[in-house]
Amino acid sequence: MILEKGLLSDGIGTHVAASFVAGFVASVASNPIDVIKTRVMNMKVEPGVEPPYKGALDCAVKTVKAEGPMALYKGFIPTISRQGPFTVVLFVTLEQVRKLLKDF
């Protein structure tokens, strides 16, 4: 899309920009799921006591009701700090290898 709209020409700068956007979108999409998963995994289940969550969906609903929708983005900075550089390195390397192999 960056190339089609003429925002940048094909090159490493374009690949870095597109990769960072991909990492950001992946972080935005995956962070709520990670927060829910962590809460369900860490809940204390004791015999004779009803657990705090019946499942992932119940956890999501209770979290949003109690803490608001932004609670699903707790830990977003560490997530983007991890996923951003990873996707940049991954996709820039992939594009460079693809260009290299295209010449063969």
Automatic annotation (TrEMBL):
Question: Where is the protein localized?
Answer: Membrane
Protein name as annotated: MITOCHONDRIAL DICARBOXYLATE CARRIER-RELATED
Species of origin reads Salix purpurea (Purple osier willow)
Membrane topology type? Multi-pass membrane protein
Where does the source fall among the domains of life?
A: Eukaryota
Question: Is Oxidoreductase one of the keywords?
Answer: no
Keywords recorded for this protein, A-Z: Membrane, Repeat, Transmembrane, Transmembrane helix, Transport
State the taxonomy lineage. Eukaryota, Viridiplantae, Streptophyta, Embryophyta, Tracheophyta
User: What family, per the record?
Assistant: Belongs to the mitochondrial carrier (TC 2.A.29) family.
InterPro entries tied to this protein: MCP_dom_sf, MCP_transmembrane, Mito_Metabolite_Transporter
Pfam families named in the record: Mito_carr
Tell me which GO cellular component terms the UniProt record holds: membrane
The regions listed as transmembrane in this protein's record are 12-33
- Chief location: membrane
Query: Which parts are the Solcar repeats?
Result: 10-100
SUPFAM superfamilies, alphabetized? Mitochondrial carrier
